[in-house]
Amino acid sequence: MAKTNNTNKENASKASAKTTKSEKQSAKSSKNSQTAAGDESTAKANASADPATNPLTDEVSESVPTTEGTNGDKAPSGDESSAEELLTAERDKYLRLAAEYDNYRKRSSKEREMTYNDARIESVTKLLPIYDNLERALQMECSDEPFYKGIEMIMAQFNDMFENMGVKHIPAVGEPFDPNLHNAVTMITDPNLGENIVATEYQKGFTLGQRVIRFSTVVVAN
């Protein structure tokens, strides 16, 4: 009976020792699992931080479209394209405005010149009757030489004034008849003159530049 009890005690002691050993192995296995899990987490974190060794990063990089052109240049973004279009529109607007202003400047200059010429023509036209009377006076005989000399001086002043204003006499006597410059009142036959040659001038004509202030009143031969 005592031997049986001792045997039971030994078996119980061995069973207890086996249980303790199993518990230690379980604890050690659990600790190793935790260590392995920690190393795996650390490896994943390092892989995430390093794009060169992260396969997920490589896949994302391949899926994201690049903004570089075929020559390695960056393609313009939407904002850059809008800015370029706005700049082009403003440049076109500036060029049109500059062209319009240049046309306006030329047109205004031409209008001012025409207005100035019109004013000069109007002034000369009002002076022409006085000029005609002085010319008739010089064609008359006069016994008072100082008086006649005074009329000549006034006519000379008229001619100087016309020359300074750009007003010129229209050539008439001996010149071919020109309907753009001459106003024929009659025709005569003169064997000493050629055909359509101005024989006599009744009234002088004048021009200002390319414009006729007054046509010459003439007699045409043949």
Q: What does this 3D model show about the protein?
A:
The strands form two sheets. Strands 1-4-5 form a three-stranded antiparallel beta sheet. A three-stranded mixed beta sheet has the order 2-6-3, with no helix packed on it. It is built from four helices and six strands; from the N terminus they run ααααββββββ. The model is unreliable at 1-8 and 45-70 (pLDDT under 50). Among the domains are: 88-165, Hemagglutinin Ectodomain, Chain B (Alpha-Beta Complex); 168-222, Nucleotide Exchange Factor Grpe, Chain A, domain 2. By secondary structure, the protein is α+β, with helices and mostly antiparallel strands.
Low-confidence stretches: 1-8, 45-70
Please write the CATH class name of the domain at 88-165: Alpha Beta
Strand count: 6
Q: Name the CATH architecture of the domain at 88-165.
A: Alpha-Beta Complex
User: What would the average pLDDT be, to the nearest integer?
Assistant: 77
Question: Could you say which overall geometry the principal axes of the C-alpha atoms support?
Answer: elongated
Secondary-structure blueprint:
Layout: H1 2-49, H2 55-63, H3 78-139, H4 145-165, E1 167-169, E2 182-188, E3 197-203, E4 206-208, E5 211-214, E6 216-221
Parallel strand pairs: 2-6
Antiparallel strand pairs: 1-4, 3-6, 4-5
Helix pairs in contact: 3-4
Please give a handful of descriptors for the protein shown.
single chain, about 220 residues, alpha+beta, Hemagglutinin Ectodomain, Chain B, Nucleotide Exchange Factor Grpe, Chain A, domain 2, three-stranded antiparallel beta sheet, three-stranded mixed beta sheet, 4 helices, about 65% helix, about 15% strand, disordered N terminus
